[in-house]
Prior knowledge:
The chain is α/β, with parallel strands linked by helices. It has 13 helices and 13 strands.
Amino acid sequence: MLRIKNVQHFNGNIEVNDSWNFPESKELLMHKIHAYPAKFPAFLTPKIVSYLKENRAQINSIGDIFCGCGTSALESKLLGIDYLGYDINPVATLIAKAKSNVYSTKKIKELYEEIIKECNNGKFLTPNKILFHERIRYWFNEDNIVKLYRLQKGIYNVCPDGKYRVLFLTAFSNILKACSKWLTKSIKPQVDPNKIPLDPYLAFKRQIRFIIEANEEIKCIQPKNSIIKVKTQNILNIKPRKNKVDLVITSPPYVTSYEYADLHQLSTLWLGFVDDYKELRKGTIGSEYAKAEHETFLINNETSQTIVKELFKVDKGKSKSVTKYFYDLDKTVDKTYSLLNENGYAAFVIGNTSYKGVYIDNAKVLIESFMNKGFKNIEVTKRKISSKILTPYRDKTGKFSNNKKGEKVYSHEFIIIAKKPSR
């Protein structure tokens, strides 16, 4: 770890620390029960906790203000550390809740059989008698709409409200893209005219088998007792008072990245979280679709001001969205400070990128925000990004591309650790 004393002396050209690149053991199957873009590396949570404890830090509770699909939630449970996670995306928090529980395999099998019986008894209305959302008709053929509708109804009828319903809805959510016309591993919502969608009943059966295998693996580990809480809330709007933690470990949505609301639209629509999936764009930090109260933001951050000025020369629209991103990022640092106990730590994972030739030094912006908010003992290290679900390339116009000849968006990321001092 490199100790930062003056932000102006920091640049992203520090050497990669290989010890932070790869896990020592294979990732647990429970982390894979639902696909998720740019998923947080599972091994980083125990790695960061271990690093801090070696430096005599007391870590009895962990928070994640962008908890996503609950990678840090599951890892905290395995460590026996209490956990509090926030995310604005209800699909993400659904997955996070499913992953951070342990289940009875016998009960999973019994509930699955009951759900299939419900699907086959023919008592449900067929979709041609129901007004479906136009986007569902756009992505799914009629036969699959019927089967998915019956599966969903079966889950709600058979599973009481609680962790088993959450688990089965997560399984349902994960098969949606495979059962649709969605182009596999696409970096944006796109129809594949040649795709043959999977049969929902077959896809669901396979998914439940995988979940049972993942659950058995967790039970063999015998996770320790800890309190895991996951909340569907926008971190920018919360007012932390009582629920404070010793460590906030998180990875904010990356600047100029894809819209998560768009990528999760099938699950959002089927599960009825919102009438229009685009509504979820509004609260995402730095979203190009976010509505600002003012045209410009006062940014007390020299690094961000410099970057925005350079972006303005090549793309005025993008400079505006990046301004909003930096403004929101600064607010997350402020929220993190208020969420931490005294002598608590913040550990942020973030990557740098470039856009139309402008280098966007997110790590340096974040370090300056930490300093401005009063954090001390700021340390940083650099790791290589081994893989992402979505291909991280841009063409010359700045648009996402599958062409590896384009500019790589994120090849490395930084782990920045900072301490909240005692008063």
